[in-house]
Amino acid sequence: MNAAITPALETRQLCKNFGALTVADDINFRLEPGARHALIGPNGAGKTTFVNMLTGALPSSSGRIFMDGQDITDMPQAARTQRGLGRTFQITSLFKSLPALDNVALGIAEREGIALSMWKPASGYKVIREEAMSQLEKMGLADEALTVVRDLPYGKQRLIEIAIALGLKPKVLLLDEPAAGVPSIESGRILDVLAELPKEIAILIIEHDMDLVFRFAQRITVLVQGAVLTEGTPDDIANDQRVRDVYLGEGGHD
């Protein structure tokens, strides 16, 4: 990697302790601009804890976090989102009683700082509605725009969550297990959508579906017991005996 290129996201000696328990241990990590990067590791590796620190959902104990070269360690979550840090969750955080269109529209309204009235849904604003429809079309969900989310298959709910994250116009997108709980026939669609995302967005995917990881990622970081075990290309990782011993060979889950 070219050290002269400013990483889209970077951590330096990032640590997190809960009392005597260390869950993130001196993590040095770089996400390059436009990267397609995966973070994997066995059960309890600390992957979600790491992502929570990146987004500001969880404060770090020590170390620093940088986005485009700026120190964001002490920034609140909302400020990181405004700077272009988007995120999806292990479990969907959708408004399941609302249509897909309104879910995406709410995210866009938040990005634009539009104060919504109690009697007018976000999709009632023409500009927001048009952009929300455009995001749903990219996900192949235009026909489901007016369907209440709870009535959609889980795989499509995950796609809606990605659409919401993209509606925030992120520079960096963190996808926390986008295929979790999704039947394999639908996870293929998620991979197709990821392949079609704008090349300038740096993407970090945290995922247990190794087929998806190896098809998506150009680089993979392996986290074990809160520390980076190794990082490399998919071929490097697949052929690393240490990785096989602690993760790939056992089919571990976080």
Number of strands: 10
Q: Sheet with the most strands?
A: 6 strands, mixed
Q: What radius of gyration results from the CA coordinates? A: 18 Å
The helix-and-strand class reads alpha/beta
Average pLDDT taken over every residue: 87
User: Within the largest sheet, what's the order of strands?
Assistant: 6-7-8-3-9-10
Determine the number of helices (DSSP H or I, runs of at least 4 residues): 9
Terminal CA distance reads 29 Å
Elements, N to C (H/E): EEEHEEHEHHHEHEHEEHH
The number of distinct structural domains comes to 2
What portion of residues is helical?
25-40%
What is the highest CATH level, the class of the largest domain? Alpha Beta
Task: Characterise the protein shown here.
- This protein is an alpha/beta fold and 254 residues long.
- The protein contains 9 helices and 10 strands.
- The protein has helices spanning 47-55, 77-82, 100-112, 126-138, 154-167, 184-196, 210-216, 234-238, 241-248; strands at 9-18, 21-31, 36-40, 62-67, 70-71, 85-88, 172-176, 202-206, 219-224, 227-232.
- The strands form 2 sheets. A 6-stranded mixed sheet has the order 6-7-8-3-9-10, with helices on both faces. Strands 2-1-4-5 form a 4-stranded antiparallel sheet, with helices on one face.
- Helix 6 (184-196) links the parallel strand 7 and strand 8 (202-206).
- Helix 3 crosses helix 4 (126-138) and helix 4 (126-138) crosses helix 5.
- The model has no long low-confidence stretch (mean pLDDT 87).
